[in-house]
Amino acid sequence: MEPHIDYGILDDARQIYKDVVNELFQRKNVVACGLGYKITSGKPTGKLSLVVSVTHKVPAVELTSEDLIPPSVSGLETDVVETGRIRALTAKDPRARWRPAQPGISIGHRDITAGTFGLLVQREGQAHILSNNHVLADINAADLGDPIYQPGSADSGTSDDRIATLSDFEPISFGDAAPTCRIAKTLASGLNWMARITGSTHRLQTIQAAPSLNRMDAALALPDQPDLVIPEIVGIGMPTGAAEPVLGQEVQKMGRTSGLTKGTISQISVTVNVNYADRTARFTDQIFTTPMSSPGDSGSSILNVERQVVGLLFAGSERVSIFTPIQRVLDRFEVDVITV
Q1: What gap in Å lies between CA 333 and CA 220, rounded to an integer?
Q2: What is the CATH number of the domain that holds 325?
Q3: Which helix or strand (DSSP H or E) is residue 15 part of?
Q4: Which element (helix H / strand E) includes 251?
Q5: Torsion-angle region of residue 241: left (phi > 0), alpha (psi -120 to 50) or beta?
Q6: What is the pTM of this model?
Q7: Residue 222: which residues within 8 A CB-CB, separation 6 or more?
Q8: Is the N or C terminus of the chain more exposed, i.e. has fewer CB atoms within 10 Å?
Q9: Domain check: are 297 and 201 in the same one?
Q10: Structural domains in the chain (count)
Q11: Where among 30, 55, 82 does a domain terminate?
């Protein structure tokens, strides 16, 4: 049975969350903020709270007042949860070659280790493979048309295992963007002109400081031949459609590392910092579940018990798994889930 949610209380909580989320990220060890049911003595209380995730818990006496998470914010109770550092899920465990390939198995851009073939979707009558940017597009480094291997390179995939080409991806922002301010461009151009006529070899370059707010880690690949892929998810079956994730809902996934696992949605509307090697990207409006993934499961589709797709997995830690609501991804790429 799905948990009962008072949407009036939920709307009020979302507003409080929006008002304080940026300030909470300034506090020590905070890696995520979201809404979830408060946990007391290891058990959910059913009371909606502002969940603040930290890399590790520190005794209150060792924290300054600026870093201490208050017991409540604007009447909304807080719950501090230790999740560890959040990372993109990549790995090097070997997995087999499948023909036809299907969701739940090893796949990846030629220059990455391996991730998971998440879902088969349809765009303009053609089937496409859906997974993560960091699985199919090498964290923005790839070019459209680059080869996709199944299995991924970490699973002994080579050019002989090419199955598709990269067709589209949503770039991941790490905080900088191309400059758009004409005043800044003009000022830099003038100062560089003065530098040239005075003999200086130094030049100025404009950079726009942009907030690293991402809404998904997602990409598409077009199979080289239609018969190389099928839509049935290994261990789960055919998806029956798409649906919105619900707080407290039981979900499942099939991934190339941990296989078929189940979990529970523990937080919604989450803003979270995710580590990609030596860089960090901030994502907004994501979903946390109880731990149900391992490195290499990135790109897995998340389904409810009715086999409706509710999300696309892309990150996690030892204590949480993180996914993006699927409808946002489908809308971005203008695709539909291929169903029964």
Answers
A1: 8
A2: 2.40.10.10
A3: helix 7-24
A4: strand 250-255
A5: left
A6: 0.82
A7: 126, 128, 129, 164, 165, 167
A8: N
A9: no
A10: 3
A11: 82
